[in-house]
Amino acid sequence: MDVAGLQEDVEAVSASYAERHGINRTDDWFVLKLGEEVGELTQAYLAKNGQARDKGRSDAQIEQDFRAELSDVLAHVLLLAQRFEVDLVSEVERKWLVWKPGRTNA
């Protein structure tokens, strides 16, 4: 799946969830929700590395939590980009890939 297709699928899921639960997805919501998800990823990372309590969860569950939170962050980055009409692939190419080793303009 390409980034644009993934972005469309994530948007469909988010819009459906918001409709079911009466969530008003404002510009602020998109930014704040990403911040919330980064916080949850941080918590999962700390638990994974033994720097936070495990809450009775096994190592496998903690690893699963970390992976799930990482996917939540990606999904919310995709949602935020879609909301503000940012072509993430183009921006990554412009900002990051210009420095790729072997490129003549790096």
Give a structural overview.
- There is one protein chain.
- With 106 residues, the chain is mainly α.
- It has one domain: Orthogonal Bundle (Helix Hairpins), CATH 1.10.287.
- The protein has 4 helices and no strands.
- The chain has helices spanning 3-21, 27-48, 59-83, 88-95.
- The longest helix is centred in the last third of the chain and has 25 residues, at 59-83.
- It starts with a helix and ends in an 11-residue tail after the last helix.
Task: Please describe the structure with a list of short key phrases separated by commas or semicolons.
single chain; mainly alpha; Helix Hairpins; 4 helices; flat
DSSP, total strands: 0
Low-confidence stretches: none
**Major sheet size, sense and barrel closure:** none
Shape: flat
SSE string, helices as H and strands as E: HHHH
Provide a compact summary of the structure:
By secondary structure, this protein is mostly helical.
Which SSEs are present, and which pair or pack?
Layout: H1 3-21, H2 27-48, H3 59-83, H4 88-95
